[in-house]
Design a protein that fits this description.
The complex is a heterodimer.
Chain A: H1 2-10, H2 19-29, H3 31-54, H4 106-141, E1 146-148, H5 149-166, H6 170-192, H7 203-206, E2 208-211, H8 212-225, H9 228-238, H10 243-252, H11 256-269, H12 273-280, H13 285-321, H14 333-340, H15 349-376
Antiparallel strand pairs in A: 1-2
Helix pairs in contact in A: 2-15, 3-4, 3-15, 4-8, 4-10, 4-11, 4-13, 5-6, 11-13, 13-14, 13-15, 14-15
Chain B: H1 2-29, H2 46-55, H3 62-75, H4 87-122, H5 127-141, H6 144-159, H7 176-214, H8 217-224, H9 229-241, H10 243-252, H11 261-266, H12 272-281, H13 285-313
The chains are: A mainly alpha, B mainly alpha.
Chain lengths: 384, 319
């Protein structure tokens, strides 16, 4: 009996594997998500090298060289060397993916477009995750504290001021903004001198108006009412054409999922002992939320972010296909496909090369995200 | 239950109000003025611009414009800036064009994804399950416009039927069966495209729901008492797995409006999506705002219906 106990104690009580080893073990079981990860790394590499090889004044692969005598050549065809200036000969010696209707090398254009897809995916999702974590974190942590009527009034005044400034009613807008700031400063100064402002005694101003949680969740509801692709299309069409506008607009219209996940996680984390412990240590609220609680709530956000990258890439491709986004000489996968649609029967490679590239990249993100979901699922983890 | 309905109706109306304000602000604060629609048009003199601004209250402050716009919307008097036609009438015509696409697409989605998902769950881990999983990822990941061109190339080169538009042009006095087949071919491909994403997502959802129910104790009991496998799957498990899907009927509603911009523009289908797209290009604000408002109404109505359906079908839920 005694021996048995000793034998048990010799083995350390800690888990045999570190968390990362455990994750990797679970991840490896899903062969499709390994495939997704590999494709993702390759895509990252291609996009980065593509950026270096196709930009600058004299790029190695020039996507902008127009060879009208060599238009709509099939993939793997060799260039007609007599008809070309030495500068115009493609770097690889053949047209690997063919040429388009202006004789531009599709391979170089694909290399150039990879970077656009990559950055759109990452920046848009980065924006949406940041907004989602911030709003979800506040809603989850301060869930049951209430805004008072005075806060609501103040923000209405300030918001109206900004809007009025925006619509050329400068006088009224500035007046409202000044009013709001005067109010804030008086409160700060009175607080510093330790006096209670007289109007604080008006009960109506101190009445609870709406809880922070309700406010943020109603905002989520409002955002969910907009048909997202239509909204993105409207805003992108009204703003000047630029890839950054697309990233920002996609980011601003897709944070709702992340906010909901973070809020739900924080609502349960809030009751746990480690949060009580850090509160007892007197650490500030924002540090508690973003340093201690969010890392524990990041799992579902990561999964939805990975899948969000896939859908942002699809959205950008759809927008370029409709003719919005990056202005013409620059290639994106969506506008290569869009330019090629007039030649689907004569030059199907102009449709298939970018189409399959988008498909593979989006698929890899979806598969990788699915693998991540399995890894982060506690039900599948080994019990200790 | 009545109090729940009342509360939720009030909440939805408040949300709708904010949606209307936000969409109005987005449109009007964006750079560019609607009166600059066509600066190159020689007929567009400054006097005309002035008259145009007067006629549509564009010279008034923003909040007055807002009130005018929604007053007109609710009395059905909103007119398009482009052709001065009633927006409601315009949307209704386009809606009737989009409706067949929506109906066929929805029927395809719901009739295909259930058998696929249920079979995947029953034969979990088999070749069938794994290929269905991979296929559904493929369908989620494929860009709609790329898939559209694959199908166009396939159908046009294999079956030699034209598929662009709602019907073949100049088919005036063709015999009836030929005419019907023509319409069906034109309808089929855009509907299949509209349904693919839905089939992929819904079948995955059916599968996971079914798997969850199959792991319940009462299913094990049913199996243990020697019931035939089919009866266990379809009578005991499936009926309980269906619960959440009843509520999803409400969520179909938003699909009624909108349509797919990309699919409709590829197939030159004169539906709602294309109308909205053209309105955006022409800065035809009344049309954009009306479409936006209607779709917000449908989203809210959809969640409302699904909440109520949930209470009706699941007696455990009391809101």
């Amino acid at each position: 009996m005694e021996d048995n106990n000793d034998a048990k104690l010799e083995k350390p009580a800690a888990p045999e594997r570190t968390l990362m080893e455990e994750f990797w073990r679970l991840f490896k079981r899903n062969r499709l998500s390994i495939l997704g990860l590999i494709i993702f790394v390759v895509f990252l590499f291609v996009a980065l090298t593509g950026l270096f090889l196709t930009s600058g004044t004299d790029p190695l692969f020039d996507p902008a060289v127009v060879r009208l005598q060599e238009k709509l050549r099939a993939p793997f065809s060799s260039p007609n060397l007599q008809a070309l200036h030495p500068d115009e000969v493609p770097t690889l010696g053949i047209y690997l993916f063919g040429t388009d209707d202006l004789g531009r090398d599709v391979f170089s254009r694909m290399l150039q477009g990879a970077w656009v897809s990559l950055t759109v995916g990452f920046v848009a999702v980065g924006i949406s995750v940041l907004i989602g974590i911030f709003l979800g974190g506040i809603a989850g942590y301060y869930g049951d504290s209430y805004l008072k009527v005075e806060h609501v009034l103040l923000s209405v005044v300030m918001f109206a001021g900004v809007v009025l400034l925006g619509v050329d009613a400068h006088g009224a807008g500035a007046a409202l903004l000044v009013l709001g700031h005067v109010y804030i400063f008086t409160v700060i100064i009175l607080k510093a001198t330790g006096r209670q402002p007289t109007w604080k005694r008006i009960a109506l101003l101190r009445r609870k108006a709406v809880s922070i949680d309700t406010l943020i969740m109603r905002l989520v509801d409002i955002m969910l009412c907009f048909p997202s692709f239509f909204l993105i299309l409207t805003v992108v069409a009204l703003l000047p054409a630029s890839i950054y506008n697309i990233m920002i607009v996609i980011g601003l219209t897709s944070w709702m999922g992340a906010a909901r996940f973070v809020r739900a996680e924080l609502l349960s984390l809030r009751e746990q002992d480690f949060v009580t412990a850090v509160k007892a240590l007197g650490i500030g609220d924002f540090r508690i939320i973003f340093r201690h609680m969010i890392p524990n709530a990041i799992g579902p956000v990561l999964v939805s972010a990975t899948i969000g990258i896939a859908s942002a890439i699809l959205t950008e491709a759809g927008l370029s296909f409709l003719g919005f986004g990056v202005p013409p000489p620059h290639a994106t996968w969506g506008n290569i496909l869009s330019d090629g649609k007039r030649f689907i029967f004569d030059a199907p490679w102009l449709t298939f090369v970018p189409g399959i590239a988008i498909l593979i990249v989006v698929l890899s993100f979806n598969l990788f995200g699915e693998g991540l979901r399995d890894v982060l699922n506690p039900k599948l983890r080994e019990r200790h | 239950m009545l109090s729940f309905i009342g509360r939720s109706a009030v909440q939805k109306i408040v949300t709708l109000f904010f949606v209307s304000v936000v969409s109005f602000l987005i449109i009007y604060l964006a750079p560019g003025k609607p009166s600059q629609v066509d600066p190159l048009n020689p007929k567009f003199t400054p006097e005309m611009v002035e008259r145009f601004r007067k006629a549509f209250h564009l010279d008034k402050p923003l909040h007055v414009q807002y009130v005018y716009f929604y007053k007109n919307l609710f009395t059905g008097q909103t007119v398009s800036w482009k052709d001065n036609q009633s927006v409601v009438k315009k949307i209704w015509e386009r809606f009737l064009n989009s409706l067949p696409l929506f109906v066929v697409g929805t029927i395809l989605t719901w009739t295909l994804s259930f058998p696929v998902g249920i079979q995947s769950a029953i034969r979990r881990g088999s070749i069938y399950d794994r290929s269905a999983t991979f296929l559904s990822y493929l369908l989620i990941s494929i860009p709609g416009f790329f898939f559209a061109y694959i199908l166009i190339i396939l159908v046009v080169t294999r079956f030699h039927v034209p598929v662009i538009g709602m019907e073949t042009f100049g088919l005036g006095d063709a015999p009836l069966p030929f005419f019907v087949m023509d319409r069906i071919w034109h309808l089929l491909i855009p509907s299949v495209l509209g349904a693919t994403g839905g089939i992929a997502v819904l079948s995955r959802y059916v599968r996971s729901q079914m798997l969850e129910v199959e792991g319940q104790d009462y299913v094990r009991t049913a199996r243990a008492k020697g019931l035939p496998a089919d009866q266990v799957h379809y009578k005991h498990a499936l009926r309980n797995a269906l619960l959440p899907f009843v509520t999803m009927f409400g969520l179909i509603l938003p699909g009624l409006i909108g349509g797919s911009v990309i699919i409709e523009s590829i197939f030159s289908w004169p539906g709602m999506g294309r109308m909205a797209y053209e309105a955006i290009l022409a800065r035809d604000y009344p049309v954009i705002l009306t479409v936006n408002f209607l779709s917000a109404v449908l989203v809210l109505a959809g969640t409302f219906v699904s909440d109520i359906l949930y209470m009706v079908v699941d007696p455990r839920i009391r809101l």
